[in-house]
Amino acid sequence: MKNLWEQFLIRVFVDNLTLCKYWRCHQLSERSFFVRGRQFHLCARCTGIITGYFLSPLAYFTLGEEVTFYFIICAMIIALDGFTQLWKLRESANILRFVTGLSFGLTFPSFCFVILIKIFHLIKECYGWQ
After folding, report:
1. Where are the domains of the chain?
2. Mean pLDDT of the region 81-102
3. Rounded CA separation 73/59 (Å)
4. Is the pLDDT of residue 128 over 90?
5. pTM of the model
6. What is the DSSP letter of 27?
């Protein structure tokens, strides 16, 4: 099972050149995960964000419109983690980077979906559409 999981990680995050091409990331080795000695093409935070994007329907169907509240919290946490590290107030660990990225990635697409639904309903009301 471990071997299958490692093969999946290598295929998605190491050998996948599409990630390098379309997702801009600093790819610093000290801020990236490794599997079988091979570095991911993304840092730990970006890995978490992309993982969260794929899992975000779970957040929407679990939280519904409450996802807006959780998104605001997650956005503040990822910003706090990133800026305190940028300003050299502390050094973040890869697992913390991954978790903050994952929480943001889980909630951001769902938040956008909720906003789009609200905009659609406003337009619908404005034009009197049924």
Report:
1. 2-126
2. 95
3. 14
4. no
5. 0.88
6. -
The DSSP letter of residue 11 is: I
* Residue (of 78, 97, 105) closest to 33 by Cα position: 97
Query: Quick one: pLDDT at residue 75?
Result: 97
Report pLDDT for 115.
95
Helices of type H across the chain: 2-9, 17-22, 44-63, 67-86, 94-126
DSSP element (H, E) containing 33: strand 32-35
pLDDT at 58: 92
For residue 40, the SS3 value is: strand
Residues 64-100, buried b or exposed e (16+ Cβ, 10 A)?
Answer: eeebeebbeebbeebeebeeebeeeeeebebebbbbb
